[in-house]
Amino acid sequence: MEALKIENLSKQFGGVLAVNNVSLSLEVGERVVIIGPNGAGKTTLFNLINGQTSATSGRIYFFKENISKMPTHHRAHCGQARAFQIISLFLNLTVLQNALLAINGTKPHRFQMFRHINSYLRVLNRAESTLKELGLYERKNELVKNLAYGEQRKMEIGLSLASQPKLLLLDEPSAGLSRQECTNIISLIKNLGADIAVIIVDHDMDLIFGVAERIIVLHYGQIIAEGTPVEIQSDPNVKEIYLGIQE
Q1: Which of 7, 54, 207, 239 has the fewest CB atoms within 10 Å distance of its CB?
Q2: Residue 244, C-beta contacts closer than 8 angstroms, at least 6 positions apart
């Protein structure tokens, strides 16, 4: 089943065509990695998918619904989630408080001033369960700023799953991580639910070839190659443009 479909998507900033007539699709549960040189249009494409930037032309379908004009928060409620390259956690709150905020923010009762005490208990139980899955339960009362960067990154990705998304966008999940921390992130991504489609933008080759079922290569806003990791590794255009190797 198709989770995401993009048709002839373009975004122009003045005289710069950052995304140029891009078309792609993503199946439910598929892991796709987008790579390309700096300035290739990867982050702009992410911004178009989750509505932070409006397209100049083209259409975006999410489970067959046209979301091209839909604002970001509506796309989130439809089932999109995104973890950013820069950590966006509340560093001066505890691990548990961050989890509670992330989970409560996805619930309809977040706007209700007075509600039954059981609603709070359900949120608390869900938050604690999430932290156990991330291996952070023992540090639930620790301030987030005291966690190692790799733990913060893992927590950011984990809490992006609080809304139980159908599509997860991961922007440079390996940025700033040690080799062991990157290995932990690869394991976390691999163990995501089979019903969650994942699109990743990254430069780390271990992560790219460790999780990707399909790789899309962008260059100057256009898709120049698409295929399995083996096919991309042997593509002469990718070797020359992205890897800097000429045949």
Answers
A1: 54
A2: none
